[in-house]
């Protein structure tokens, strides 16, 4: 979002939209570095998309962005091939409270809720068949 805001601000001020992002030197060694590579690639993809949909002269660094995106894609590929680190926990350092202080409990996902209702209906149908048999 930071980069999108920067791109939009430059464009609104009728300035050339700059990339101003460093290039990583090596492939990722852990989840955080992999996420950073993915984010950088998304930012460059966004720049390229904007350059195709808005005035070309406002996006003077298209070739640089293409080269950087290709290089980062290569680093991503190398990172995934060499990935041998243990995945980091999504909840690292966070305790997962079952119920909040105000009595609010997070609702189940709609898919799980629907599956539960479907299973309940099939059990009711089985019981009805037993009763009628």
TrEMBL record:
<feature type="compositionally biased region" description="Basic and acidic residues">
    <location>
        <begin position="112"/>
        <end position="133"/>
    </location>
</feature>
<feature type="compositionally biased region" description="Basic and acidic residues">
    <location>
        <begin position="86"/>
        <end position="105"/>
    </location>
</feature>
<dbReference type="InterPro" id="IPR022192">
    <property type="entry name" value="SUV3_C"/>
</dbReference>
<dbReference type="Pfam" id="PF12513">
    <property type="entry name" value="SUV3_C"/>
</dbReference>
<dbReference type="GO" id="GO:0004386">
    <property type="term" value="F:helicase activity"/>
</dbReference>
<keyword id="KW-0067">ATP-binding</keyword>
<feature type="region of interest" description="Disordered">
    <location>
        <begin position="86"/>
        <end position="133"/>
    </location>
</feature>
<keyword id="KW-0378">Hydrolase</keyword>
<feature type="domain" description="ATP-dependent RNA helicase SUV3 C-terminal">
    <location>
        <begin position="34"/>
        <end position="81"/>
    </location>
</feature>
<keyword id="KW-0347">Helicase</keyword>
<keyword id="KW-0547">Nucleotide-binding</keyword>
<protein>
    <submittedName>
        <fullName>DExH-box ATP-dependent RNA helicase DExH18, mitochondrial</fullName>
    </submittedName>
</protein>
